[in-house]
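This section describes the prediction task in plain terms. A model, or a person checking by hand, is given the sequence of a single protein chain and must write out its three-dimensional structure as a string of tokens. No templates, partner chains or ligands are provided. The sample shown here is typical of the held-out split.
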Amino acid sequence: MSSKRILHFDVLKGIAIFMVVMGHVIAMCIRGLDGAFLFKFIEQTHMPIFFFISGYLTYAATGQSTFKTPNLKKRFMQLIIPFLVITPLWVLYFPHSGLQSPLSDNLPALYRAYWKDGYWFTLCLFELFLVYYPLSLLLSRLHRSWAQIVAIVATYAVLIVMAVLFSDEEAGVDYPGLGLLARFFPIFIMGVMAHRWRGAFDKACHNSAWITTAVVTFAVAFFIVAYRWDMPWAENNTVAAAINYLLMPPMQLSLIVLAIAMAEPWCSREFQSERQPGRIARYFNLLGHKSLGIYLLHYFFLFPLTALQQPLKQMALSAVPLAVVAAVVAVAIVAVTLLVIYALERSRLLAFLFLGQPMSPR
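The expected answer:
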């Protein structure tokens, strides 16, 4: 696999991590605005981008065009070491943050929680690599595309069963993180297969009919997933779970097609021309390069904004004022986080422990 970075992926990661911070400003700083359309849109769109790109970049073919297994030691150092270092610090810091979110006050409670107080992503991504390791060996032995698809669907079915048996999102309990593992396995593996069949995937992202289909699919699936209480037939917990597991994969794939269809030509104009790229493009490109560090550290710079809750509710939680408030605050939080990342990167040991960066000299 080429080590050359994919510019529109870096920019998409930058946009996604900025949306992560915006979402946490709404949910943890202001609070009480979870029903806002903007929050629901952010909730359903930012993380699939990371998992798709991770899957896309994970795929590598051997000389025989078989699937190469991921380097689990490297991924453990990159993802789990910072998770184990930062989560105890977060538990210690949270009571002094002023935030009123109902998060864990001890480490066992954090590890038991479904969302791990927000630190679920690194654990979930590493678990995806664990699942993909044996799956990649199996896919390498299956030479027909239909057989590979059957193996992937079977793996997804097993993960769903395990999630149903060992996780409970309603109760907020999931020690091994199986619920989120099952939720994001499809988009991760779609990233893998999109790279394997990148010619066909690239054509789909530039085809008007596919883009139109993606718009319709995303809009319909998003409404059902995000507003299922508006549909009496979807109120049952079993039906709700089925909706998540059946509708989220096509919704997330449609999102990716639309995101690439918009980001790739924009990045081509900004970065592959003689003129200097614009500030917005450079900003999101920077955030894309620092996305893991921003994710791991920005929680420490969230602060209470509950005084804004009622004014925003009086504006009917309209997307524009809420977006402006969340974006302005997110810019400030990201700026401080980037400054801390810069300081930590002066030490290879601290960059390894807190940012998941390799210890080898740059």
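For orientation: The mean pLDDT is 92.
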